[in-house]
């Protein structure tokens, strides 16, 4: 089961459905379907944070602000289920595990797709603008009772099949510019996790280095993985698979399923290291297995 790397906000489970089994959940969890997990998907293409991205994606995709409003409604229902005992509900929510990932669509669908945004902001300015908004939203999530929160950084977006195709003859120069911009965002997100831990009482934010984990995972195969094309063909105007096209036979050898989304094999590898870090750089200040025990 592949997962989008755009925003997913979940209670009692984590960014990738694969982690549901890693943490030993008895059943695969579906969006808003069980009492042990609440999952807010942004839609078929994920979610967004920048208003300009929302205009490009349309109404079918929920922005983070909307998802937070839905979460607040759910919190009220939890309080009600606990006999309007707010302190008891707060204690319960404080033990829940949240994972949040945001920014992929803001870059792929917006900033890098010849939109006015790229003329209005330098890569550094755009990263700062997204992080400023993100910080406000994470504080809203905290104020709703969340305490254990894993923040997933962005992957190596310049290397996804969609961007490889879009860059065309510009090749590695174009791809490197994208990856450099992504690293600016990731660096600020990592520092944001540290900042929030300092200023918010009992907060335990942690940063998951998706970029680094993905990069070292690919490198560990010494060039034997297919990284430049997806397992299925995708259209020139979309990152998703073309309907009814026959996918590749060996999905395990592919890093990407379509133009942007990782295959299950990739998700398994990244989820495993997000949960239990293999390198000190995989997570900061701690991996998800330690986050759940804090």
UniProtKB/TrEMBL annotation:
Pfam families: Lipase_GDSL. It is found in: Secreted. SUPFAM superfamilies: SGNH hydrolase. The keyword Ligase does not apply. Belongs to the 'GDSL' lipolytic enzyme family. PANTHER family: FINGER PROTEIN, PUTATIVE-RELATED, GDSL-LIKE LIPASE/ACYLHYDROLASE-RELATED. This is Uncharacterized protein. It comes from Rubus argutus (Southern blackberry). The lineage of its organism: Eukaryota, Viridiplantae, Streptophyta, Embryophyta, Tracheophyta.
């Amino acid at each position: 089961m592949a997962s989008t790397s755009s925003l997913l906000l979940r209670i009692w489970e984590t960014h990738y459905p694969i982690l549901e089994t890693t943490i030993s959940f008895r059943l695969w969890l579906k969006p808003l379907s069980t009492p042990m997990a609440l999952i807010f998907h942004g839609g078929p293409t994920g979610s967004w944070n920048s208003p300009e991205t929302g205009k490009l994606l349309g109404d079918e995709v929920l922005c983070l602000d909307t998802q937070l409003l839905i979460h607040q409604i759910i919190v009220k229902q939890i309080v009600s289920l606990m006999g309007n005992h707010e302190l008891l509900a707060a204690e319960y929510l404080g033990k829940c595990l949240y994972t949040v990932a945001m920014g992929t669509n803001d870059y792929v669908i917006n900033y890098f797709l010849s939109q006015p945004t790229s003329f209005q902001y330098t890569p550094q300015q755009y990263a700062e603008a997204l992080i400023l908004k993100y910080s406000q939203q994470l504080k809203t999530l905290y104020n709703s009772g969340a305490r254990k929160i894993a923040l997933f950084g962005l992957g190596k977006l310049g290397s996804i099949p969609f961007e490889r195709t879009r860059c065309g003859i510009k090749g590695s120069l174009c791809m490197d510019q994208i990856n450099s911009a992504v690293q600016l965002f990731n660096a600020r997100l990592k520092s944001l996790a540290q900042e929030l831990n300092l200023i918010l009482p009992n907060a335990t934010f942690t940063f998951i280095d998706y970029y680094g984990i993905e990069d070292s995972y690919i490198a560990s195969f010494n060039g034997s993985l297919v990284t430049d094309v997806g397992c299925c063909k995708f259209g020139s105007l979309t990152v998703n698979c073309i309907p009814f096209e026959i996918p590749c036979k060996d999905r395990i050898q592919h890093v990407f399923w379509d133009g942007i989304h990782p295959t299950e094999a990739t998700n398994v590898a990244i989820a495993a290291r997000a949960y239990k870090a293999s390198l000190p750089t995989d997570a900061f200040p701690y991996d998800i297995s330690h986050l759940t025990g804090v």
